[in-house]
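Narrative of accomplishments. A recurring question from our advisory board has been how the design workflow behaves on a single, concrete structure rather than in aggregate. To address it, we present the structure tokens for one chain from the evaluation set, followed by the sequence designed for it. No filtering or post-editing was applied between the two.
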């Protein structure tokens, strides 16, 4: 486990070195080395951990120097935020930053030696067993943490490789934007270091430190272009994430003063134990759990906090793929999955489940009205995160099984889709879905990749659909019929907008407009690996379930759990046939397109491409086919405000009931 400090320090070192390299070719090589090093170290850590028997490893119980350094780092982060807010005259945001930092410093510097839990133990006897020991480790390596490390390092590293080629084309098409590629790559690597630290942290104080770093990096990357829109959206992301940070700081302060621990697993185990054995004392853990859940909702962009992720789409595509789809927003659902055993059957869990389910259906409906590819991906991200959050709120073995699978498949597929949309935008000069009509004939390689990504999001037999089926079954078993309705109708709307997009791509549409694929080799390397991973995850789905997801359930709930009923070999055979069907069909369509091409009558003289014709007055006409977007019924102007009001109202009322009941 000596690899952990190196794993976190390596991207930090890359973040320092890369912007110092002025030559773009040399800088690109440095990015390749940095990304390759992160992936290699993560896989090395995985190998060491597997060789050790996949056991739960607790690390670094004595870290006074690092604790002090992190408190100093918190103050420096606060100073940076205050400076930026004063510079841009965003004074209210200062209160959030200063308030939560002051609360954290007070909690850490005045932590009592005697807690309410100690007093209760003198009356009722020992309340906990060996699960909550005297050792206070600051890092933990278990199945869930290791899964997140692989997602962050491998997906994040591939996105960094993709960004090298993308940023060259980006500044070619956006000549008015100052080229700060060195800064951009630096922030990507710094983000990887922060995320790796976050998912490996057992101490809430350490997790909070890395949590706030990701918020600041997100702010800096969203404002990369420095336009008025980018600055406005970056500050929106900052204050919403700082609001979640305030909830995180409150959780740490309350836990340290009442329970006497700021260890995440100890807090969860204690909450479960008290609920089952001493319900009268369970209130001491209610507020910390609720505030941590609140922080998870903001970071995962759930309603009413979704606007920050939608605004983040102004940033260059690699940051959208890395921060706002594949990894950063996963920090929120990662925390909620950790809290799941303590959420099961509680009012806090019901709050989380409702917010997640409502976000799933509301975001899916609003995605129907979007024709901007990145906005569709953004709404889809919010929607799928909502389903994961709903599963975490229910908090039983079956729903967490579905949540973990959803997280795995969503990370890979959505990262690939963001990259493909970015490459299409650089080639077409547009990311409008309508501009992608017949893309299969114009940019076949990008279309194959995008088609696999879209299929992975909603078609059988990919893991997203199977996970949704398991979630539906678990919601029925839990008698939560409101979530059943949310999932049923949300899945229907999901199928609607993905089918519209996929149909546009595979239409056999011929045009005179010349399109040149400007996608670079490093971009194709990243996207091809993502596509292969999506197909392999589907093919090896039973093994992923048995080898990755089931051990996570065992560690979280203390008992084994199995969902798949078919034999492994039978399931893999079905997966193999199904996985090969989609790309084979797309290939055959492309091969036969030119052979079967027949000019059609178009109300005039066809000019030979079924797109342009001459009408009866001798004037040129352009045939334009468009999807139906139902903007009046499902547009943001129609649905966003009511969705925000409903979710905010439910959240405020339930938080008041939770906190009031605990007090």
């Amino acid at each position: 486990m000596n690899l952990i400090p190196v794993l976190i320090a390596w991207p930090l070192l890359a973040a320092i070195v890369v912007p110092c390299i002025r030559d773009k070719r040399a800088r690109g090589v440095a990015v390749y080395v940095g990304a390759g090093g992160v992936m290699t170290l993560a896989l090395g850590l995985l190998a060491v951990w597997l060789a050790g028997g996949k056991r739960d490893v607790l690390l670094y119980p004595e870290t006074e120097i690092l604790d002090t350094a992190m408190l100093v780092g918190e103050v420096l982060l606060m100073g940076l935020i205050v400076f930026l807010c004063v510079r841009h005259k965003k004074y209210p945001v200062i209160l959030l930053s200063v308030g939560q930092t002051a609360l954290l410093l007070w909690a850490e510097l005045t932590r009592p030696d005697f807690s309410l839990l100690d007093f209760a133990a003198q009356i009722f006897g020992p309340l906990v067993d060996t699960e909550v020991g005297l050792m206070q480790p600051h890092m933990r390596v278990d199945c869930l943490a290791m899964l997140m490390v692989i997602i962050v390092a491998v997906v994040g590293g591939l996105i960094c490789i993709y960004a090298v080629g993308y940023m060259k084309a980006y500044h070619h098409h956006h000549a008015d934007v100052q080229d700060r590629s060195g800064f951009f790559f630096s922030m990507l690597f710094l983000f990887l270091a922060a995320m790796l630290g976050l998912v490996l942290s057992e101490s809430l104080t350490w997790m909070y430190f890395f949590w706030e770093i990701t918020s600041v990096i997100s702010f800096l990357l969203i404002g990369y272009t420095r336009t008025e829109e980018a600055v406005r959206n970056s500050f929106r992301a900052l204050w919403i994430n700082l609001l979640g940070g305030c909830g995180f700081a409150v959780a740490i302060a309350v836990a340290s003063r009442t329970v006497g621990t700021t260890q995440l697993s100890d807090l969860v185990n204690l909450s479960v134990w008290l609920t089952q054995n001493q319900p009268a004392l369970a209130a001491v853990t209610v507020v910390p759990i609720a505030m941590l859940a609140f922080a998870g909702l903001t970071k995962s962009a759930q309603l009413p906090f979704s606007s920050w992720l939608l605004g983040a789409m102004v940033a260059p595509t690699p940051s959208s793929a890395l921060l706002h789809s594949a990894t950063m927003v996963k920090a929120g659902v990662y925390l909620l999955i950790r809290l799941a055993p303590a959420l099961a059957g509680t009012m806090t869990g019901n709050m989380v489940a409702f917010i997640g389910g409502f976000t799933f259906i509301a975001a899916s409906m609003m995605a129907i009205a979007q024709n901007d590819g990145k906005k569709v991906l953004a709404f889809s991200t919010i929607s799928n995160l909502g389903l994961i959050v709903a599963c975490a709120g229910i908090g039983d073995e079956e729903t967490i099984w579905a949540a973990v699978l959803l997280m795995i498949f969503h990370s890979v597929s959505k990262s690939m889709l963001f990259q493909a949309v970015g490459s299409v935008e650089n080639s077409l000069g547009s990311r409008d879905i309508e501009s992608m009509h017949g893309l299969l004939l114009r940019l076949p390689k990008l279309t194959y990749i995008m088609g696999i990504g879209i299929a992975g999001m909603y078609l059988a037999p990919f893991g997203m659909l199977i996970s949704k089926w398991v979630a539906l079954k678990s919601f029925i078993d839990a008698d939560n019929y409101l979530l059943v309705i949310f999932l049923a109708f949300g899945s229907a709307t999901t199928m609607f907008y993905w089918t519209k997009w996929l149909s546009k791509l595979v239409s056999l549409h011929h045009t005179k407009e010349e399109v040149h694929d400007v996608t670079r080799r490093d971009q194709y390397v990243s996207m091809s690996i993502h596509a292969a991973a999506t197909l392999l995850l589907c093919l090896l789905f039973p093994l992923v379930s048995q080898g990755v997801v089931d051990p996570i359930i065992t560690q979280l709930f203390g008992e084994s759990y199995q969902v798949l009923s078919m034999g492994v070999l039978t399931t893999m055979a079905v997966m193999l046939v199904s996985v090969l069907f989609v790309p084979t069909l797309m290939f055959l369509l492309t091969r036969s397109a030119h052979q079967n091409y027949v000019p059609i009558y178009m109300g005039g003289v066809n000019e030979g491409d079924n797109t342009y014709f001459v009408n009866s007055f001798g004037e040129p006409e352009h045939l334009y086919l468009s999807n139906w977007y139902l903007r009046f019924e499902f547009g943001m102007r129609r649905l966003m405000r009511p969705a925000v009001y409903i979710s905010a109202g439910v959240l405020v009322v339930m938080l008041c009931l939770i906190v009031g009941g605990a007090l």
